[in-house]
Amino acid sequence: MRDEWFRADRLPHIYCAGCGNGTIVNCVLEAVSMTGWDRKNTVFLSGIGCSSRAPGYILTDSLHTTHGRAIAFATGVKMADPSLHVVVFTGDGDLAAIGGNHFIHACRRNIDLTVVCMNNHIYGMTGGQGSPTTPLGKTSTTTPYGASETPFDLVDLAVAAGANYVARWTSFHVKQLTEAVLNGLNTPGFSLIEVRCQCPTSYGRRNKYREPVDYITHLKAHAILKDKWESMEKSGQDMPADSFPVGEFVRRARPVMGVPDEA
Amino acid sequence: MQGNIASAEGALAAGCTFFGGYPITPSTEVAEHMAARMPKIKGSCFIQMEDEIASMAAIIGAAWTGARSMTATSGPGFSLMMENIGYAVMTETPCVLVNIQRGGPSTGQPTMGAQGDMMQVRFGSHGDYSIIALCPSSVQECFDLTAKAFNLADRFRTPVFLMADEVIGHMREKLEIPDSVEIVRPKTLPEGMLPFTPGPDGVPGFAPFGTGRYTHVTGLTHDERGYPDTTNPARHDALVRRLVSKIEDARHEIADYTIVNEDAEYVFVCYGAPVRTVKEVVDKRKVPKTGYLQLRIVWPFPEELLKRFPKCRAFIVPEMNLGMIVREVGRHVKIPVIPVSRIGGELHTPEDLIEAVKIAESTT
Ligand SMILES: Cc1ncc(C[n+]2csc(CCOP(=O)(O)OP(=O)(O)O)c2C)c(N)n1
Ligand SMILES: [Mg+2]
């Protein structure tokens, strides 16, 4: 089923060995193939970055756009033809830096898109510069002494801005991630699925996660289920360093845009 | 009716079903009129985007669903659109942009007319490319040329620009709305043909999203399948030369102009608001030995038309900028080409132009 969605004549792909993006594309296509959607009426969009190359490997109509702007392009696609299913692949730089304004406005409008953010905490494509999600103290080519700016929490951003569905998983949580994407696809309105993932080439190498498995192990060890996270917070416990909550953060039915009129 | 409203009505008459925009003086009436009209037209969408970068992105996205799509803006917004304009060029996306020009640079003169974006529209995005730019000089032309812009966009699969200005956009004149306007949609992509294989005219057939052709669209240099191929010099050379030549090679065929007094010795080359003063001088006051070439399509520049004045001793180019299209005219002729520049927002007076004729007479 899932294999039908791959654009076979585009292989080999550009991703480095050990990159987390392939796992995420697999999960998304697995979820999409479970929706029963017609490939003909499904459109993938992306901005610019390694993550944004994903639509090029999928056998549907696809728009590989400009850096940061995929959600604005997707807004045009979806509003002009609400019968299309629209999915956006993006990166942490693409979504939260250059595309931050489009991101929050699409959440506010609750336009019926599913956005999958491959958050590798780094500008992968341009060779490892710091991004708005690079954790404090971590090294990149533009934070050679350790990042000194507080990072964005993409989930908090999407929730505050009004999105109807928001989840976070990692490239380790393949099953949960697939399920979350499926929920996002099925929820009318704006859905964000943040996926924390490894970039051994640009992030791992400079931050002591040289082997792909090093960072996957790190993700697994530091991801805390949302409910547990919240009860720890309530009881005033100190949160373990580098840990972060995963799970479904919001599923609601605020008014949406870009959904076909009931005929 | 006002020029800006005429432009919006021209778009609707042409079947525009998607408008994405961001308010900016002196173009805002276009968006406001679309906001009032489009929700009442089935299958149409008006959306106010968060900025002009998003507006340009949205109309490109809409165009790929097969919709006729448009935005309207002015100087600062036009500058913000530049990156995605290049994307529309590279991906051969048909769409229409209305630019109601105002005085620049920067925020400049929001309520005053200008023609200072005539080079930006041609060259403003990075890389080599070509586009089509139309310039109305009356309210009627705002309607007619906006409707026409959609046909050119579809035929050549390119962004097309209505380069009006504040004077024309806010002018009120009588408008005759025809019962129907000519509509030419893009050629459809023939069965078995790749999505970026050009036809004999250099333009590929169009397979909008949802038609089962599974088109991959990218702003990267791409092959005929639409797949990225960014390091092959010959591929890039062939693609970019085609994007330019599909428009430049058609420049004489699509030229839209008026010629008055082919025997003139002093010939005004004009477009947009200055056409009005030229008509006053040549048509009404009948200043001896003068004639004019009014260009309704300025880019691609139809230089052959300059040869239609065999007795011409000098071309005079009145513009509301410090000399833009005058350079283009000068590039193609060996006789004197005299700029009459006026910035600040006021039209040239007939006396300004008569003075220019005198200077031309004394120097030739
Ligand atoms: C307007 C613009 N600015 C800068 C770039 C260069 N650029 C390409 S990808 C990228 C960052 C990508 O980072 P991210 O979105 O995190 O994607 P990743 O490669 O990590 O998946 C940048 C800055 C560009 N293509 N366009
Ligand atoms: Mg990244």
Automatic annotation (TrEMBL), chain A:
One of its GO terms (molecular function) is thiamine pyrophosphate binding. Pfam families: TPP_enzyme_C. GO terms for biological process: cellular respiration; organic acid metabolic process; sulfur compound biosynthetic process. Residues 48-195 form the Thiamine pyrophosphate enzyme TPP-binding domain. The keyword Oxidoreductase applies. Keywords: Oxidoreductase. This is 2-oxoglutarate synthase. The lineage of its organism: Archaea, Methanobacteriati, Methanobacteriota, Stenosarchaea group, Methanomicrobia.
From TrEMBL, chain B:
The keyword Oxidoreductase applies. The keyword Transcription does not apply. It comes from the Archaea. CDD domains: TPP_PYR_PFOR_IOR-alpha_like. Gene3D superfamilies: 3.40.50.920, 3.40.50.970. It holds the Pfam family PFOR_II. Its EC number is 1.2.7.3. Residues 264-353 form the Pyruvate:ferredoxin oxidoreductase core domain. Heterotetramer of the KorA, KorB, KorC and KorD subunits. This is 2-oxoglutarate synthase subunit KorA.
